[in-house]
Amino acid sequence: MKNIFIKAQSYKTLFQNFLSLSFLQFFNYLFPVITLPYVVRVLGPEKYGLVNFAAAFIGYFITISEYGFNLSAVRQISVNRNDQQKVNKIFISVLASKFFLAAVSFILFIIIVLSLEKFRSEFWLYVITFGSVLSTILFPFWLFQGLERMKYIPIIQVIPKIAGVILIFWLIKSQGDYLIFALINTGVLIVSGIAGLIAAVKVFSFRLAVPSFDDIMFQLKDGLNLFKSNLAINLYTNSNAFILGLLTNNEVVGYYSAADKIRLFFQSLLAPVSQSVFPFVNYLLKESKEKLLLFNKQLLKYQSVAGFSISLIIFINAELIINLALGENYNESVIILKLICWLPFIIYLSNIYGIQTMLPLGFDREFFYIVAIAAFINIILAFILVPYLQGIGISIAVLSTEIFVSTSMIIFLLKKKERLL
Questions:
Q1: Secondary structure element (H or E) that encloses residue 149, with its range
Q2: Would you call 268 helix, strand, or coil by DSSP?
Q3: Exposed, middle or buried by CB within 10 Å (0-12, 13-18, 19+), for 180?
Q4: Measured CA angle at 79 (ends 73, 81), to 5 deg
Q5: What's the rounded Cα separation, in Å, for the pair 311 and 348?
Q6: Helix or strand holding residue 270 (H, E)
Q7: Is the CB of residue 22 less than 8 Å from the CB of residue 153?
Q8: CA distances in angstroms from 86 to 102, 199, 239, 242, 269, listed in the order given
Q9: Does pLDDT of 4 surpass 50?
Q10: Which residues have C-beta within 8 Å of that of residue 176, sequence separation ≥ 6?
Q11: Residues near 227 by beta carbon (within 8 Å), at least 6 away in sequence
Q12: In angstroms, rounded to a whole number, what is the distance separating the alpha carbons of residues 71 and 363?
């Protein structure tokens, strides 16, 4: 009877977290949907592309600061959630590790920006955008996720985003306001980060203290393989706008980034499932591997159908979506969207096979090998295709790479006899 009650509570918590993340994800992408048609028209492809190129560049430093904690810390916390002292220890050691990594990132950032004219000419844009790294350090999303207490997240993040939307319509009036646009985006993230840190300390009654050197080193070692995986993933996901900016111009970046924002909006519809499930499947694994695999089989069945449906809808309506959301100046984004619209379906598959199955089962190293090879493939394809096909070339590169990732993960688990099909 007790086991039945615990199981019911676990699924209730999972459902509550899913609802909270769905609410958050809805607003996370509702606001860009509201502002995107206005911003892309006011800033134009060139300035909009420049801002996105800067964001893609800063994405590397965010990856360094996040390290592997978005998965390793969640995994640690989810299995120790009933031990307040242990969770507190994990919290302060991860936080300290992130501050250390951010300091290293800032030094690298300054050296690069001051050394290269391409970055030095827009110095303040890159400095402003680097502020998003601070938000990454401060906001302990991994803590709320590991404890499966996601109901606090929407409250913390939505209010600053509402303020951001108001400021965008109020202050962005011409192409010259691109710095203000970047400042608003960064400011919203920093305010959310500060609020998230305060909420974590207050809600969970944590005691802030200086962690030991050994605790920090443990976190860095525990997250190392996942960090390498995150870095590799960044090279074939968030790097595309950056590679385009290096090989073409800001206008091409604008066409690609605008289409990609639309793709991300649709892809986000099922993102709460992945985020809420990861700590849950790690908790299921404590009971048995069979329960984890059975749960993921059911998840695969429904999520693959939903993912394919989303991708097909985007493909059929790509021209209409671009015209409504972006306007006539972004006609070149149509073919890009028709290519990358298949990413939601493919990424949903790799998420279930990789993050929800391989990582809980301890295949961190194999996961890294797959995404590292994928990063290499993406970079090679990008440098071959982009000079000739520009935005279409990078779209083909990332689509091919994601197909490789999903296929490799499926084959690996089949060889290990960890079947989901």
A1: none
A2: helix
A3: middle
A4: 85
A5: 11
A6: none
A7: no
A8: 24, 19, 36, 40, 34
A9: no
A10: none
A11: 63, 67, 68
A12: 13
Q: In this structure, what token pair is assigned to residue 84?
A: 């307040």
Burial, 204: exposed, middle or buried (Cβ in 10 Å; 0-12, 13-18, 19+)?
middle
The answer to whether the CB of 404 falls within 8 A of the CB of 377 is yes
Coarse DSSP helix, strand, coil percentages of the chain, rounded to the nearest 5 percent: 85, 0, 15
**What's the CA gap between 222 and 68, in Å, rounded?**
8
Residue 114, pLDDT above cutoff 90:
yes
* Rounded Cα–Cα distance for residues 98 and 329 (Å): 41
Spell out a b/e string for 387-413, using b for 16 or more CB atoms within 10 Å of the CB, else e: eeebbbbbbbbbbbbbbbbbebbbebb
**Amino acid letter, 177:** D
Q: Is the separation of the CB atoms in 76 and 286 below 8 Å? A: no
Which letter does DSSP use for residue 248 in this model? S
Which tokens belong to 225? 């393989």
User: Tokens for 152?
Assistant: 């606090």
Does the pLDDT value for residue 378 go beyond 90? Answer: yes
- Helices then strands, counting H and E runs in the chain, come out as 19, 0
In this structure, which amino acid lies at residue 186? T
CA 21 to chain centroid, in Å, comes to: 14
For residue 291, CA distances in Å to 228, 278, 296, 302 come to: 29, 14, 9, 17
Contacts of residue 223, defined as CB under 8 A and 6 or more positions apart, other chains included, come to: 67, 68, 69, 71, 72, 73
Average pLDDT, integer, range 6-16: 56
Single-letter residue type at 187 = G
Structure tokens that stand for 105 in this block: 């990132």
Confidence band of 1 (pLDDT split at 50, 70, 90): very low
Q: What is the rounded average pLDDT for all residues in the chain?
A: 87
Alpha helices in 223-288 (DSSP H): 224-236, 240-247, 250-267, 271-287
Rounded to a whole number of angstroms, the CA Rg of the chain reads 21
Closest by CA position to 100, among listed 69, 77, 126: 69
Place of tokens 């109020």: 170
What whole-number distance in Å separates Cα of residue 38 and Cα of residue 78? 41
Q: How many residues does the chain have?
A: 421
Q: Euclidean distance between the first and final Cα of the chain, in Å? A: 32
Quickly tell me which residue has 């992408």 as its tokens.
29
User: Which residue's structure tokens are 């409504």?
Assistant: 324
